[in-house]
Amino acid sequence: MLWGALLSLLLTLWRFSIIYSLIVITWLYCHFSGLDFEQVDSGVNQHKAIIIAIYFSYLAFWWLVNPYLSKARRQPYR
Known about the structure:
The protein is mostly helical. It is built from three helices and no strands. It is 87% helix and 0% strand.
């Protein structure tokens, strides 16, 4: 019972990761590059292009993995 609830929560978080992953990617990029968000937001478009490329890479990964996880959600819990 507890395992099924945990699995359902993790799958829901996985589905919503499309939305919050852009925020996490931007924060990680600012953290590792040593830039403030203001510099990324109002600065060179190269930073924005890198963040968008990383986000699109994550979306491609999500799109490939999601059918397998959706199939796991439809299977009954053991």
